[in-house]
Amino acid sequence: MKKLILLYLLLFTPLSAAKQIALVIGNENYPQISQRNLFGPLPNPHEDAKDMKDLLASYGFQVYLLKDAGKSQMEYAVNCLIGLESNRRKCPPRYRIAAGDTVLFYYSGHGAQVWETGDYYNYLAAANRAYADGVDLQTYGLNAHWILGKLENSPAKVKLMFLDACRNRIAESGKKGMGAAGFALMQPDGALVSYAAGSNQIAWGRPRERNSLYTRYLLQILKQQANQPISRVVKLVRDAVFLQTQKDKRAGKRVEIQKPKNEDDLIGDYCMAGCGAIALVQEKQEQQSAQPQAVPETTRTPSQAQGQRIKHYVAYANGTAVDTKTGLMWMRCAVGQEWDGVTCQGEAKKMDWDTAKQQSTSYAGYEDWRIPTIEELRSLVYCSNGKPNYFSMANDTDNDWSNDVAIDWGCAGNPGKDHKYPTIVQTVFPNTPSSLFRSDSFHDSSSSILQYINFLYGFDSNAILLRSTSVHMRLVRGRQ
């Protein structure tokens, strides 16, 4: 144990006292919308900023917090970080960036693009003023490109920028000088910039909730994934916000699709709670445990310490689960359902094979999801009655079930009486339909017949499932 602690200190204690510094701004007080004011009051930025400050402070950040700041206040705070302000009372040394530090800029409030000298530039709207057009925003707002440039030119090692802004479709106002909804990309150099909304989108506030949609998921995922690289964290935030607005829109709510945009030019990995410490603890745990088999490194999964061990799975709050026997990572929800952080909501979709192959392969920060092979799909079958195997019709050449009565089908007996259904570990894969699930494996004799698993009984068959037949599907990633 002493050797382990010493190794930890050698590996993860910095040689110099590098700091983590953050400037957090929440602007919500704006005049009511009128003919001479495109922006109105916002419901969330004060709480967004406070909650972000508290979270960052819990990870050791020195946080400079501003609420309802004017342009001069925001400029002063940025220059304070860079060391261009000498007032030690308002700008103490602990807020000044030094070599090797991490610097983070977070803004929640109004903002927009403005056409300027041949290109669009992003401006953050100072609080407590009206903005009739782009000229006003240029005059009284703060140029986000200027802020990014200051961070890029600082001696900090890690430079992060989070912009929860662009909350009005000001482009539709017809006012001269105003750009499209959403922020223009800023092409960071050696930094990471995360925008709450993509091109021509707006970032939605939540009047009846504490935080805006983007900040809500940013806070949640930073808490859950603090030992994961920030590049992966912002991908998870993007996916969560996108899926939530899809769900809200289908439910008839007055929202538009919002998909955050990330620009990542960081060198190496940065994890808010340290990337290496949890890996060392995990290695020690694996050495002490004879079972289950460790998750192979090739799966690039989050630490098992962050997931919940359920039988031979490690289930994660981001909607994924790793099978420690096979090393495969599965989506906890069937395609069409949505993970809400606790369970699978909505109705699973049925689709034919050609439609299934066109589905997006991006989820939970990974881009390589696919339809499982029949062998991989079989590995999900779980019989609550303890039956270790299931009847397979894969070699049933006559397709006649009547002459197979002596062989148990699947988990055997009547579903609900002799075994629980669906025949899958339901605490890992909640609300799974008790029905047919597609594989990507074809029948040996035909390219139009695919194999499947029936999760009512737990058996598979390749005899009757045509490419054109619509059934359910669960995606996987990892070994093949």
From TrEMBL:
Residues annotated as transmembrane: none
One Pfam short name: Peptidase_C14
InterPro entries, per the entry: Caspase-like_dom_sf, Caspase-related_regulators, Lcl_C, Pept_C14_caspase, Pept_C14_p20
Signal peptide feature range: 1-18
Residue ranges of domain Caspase family p20 in the record: 18-170
Keywords: Signal
Biological processes per GO annotation: proteolysis
Gene Ontology molecular function: any one: cysteine-type endopeptidase activity
Coiled-coil features, chain-numbered ranges: none
Protein origin, superkingdom: Bacteria
PROSITE patterns: CASPASE_P20
Protein name as annotated: Caspase domain protein
Source organism: Candidatus Venteria ishoeyi
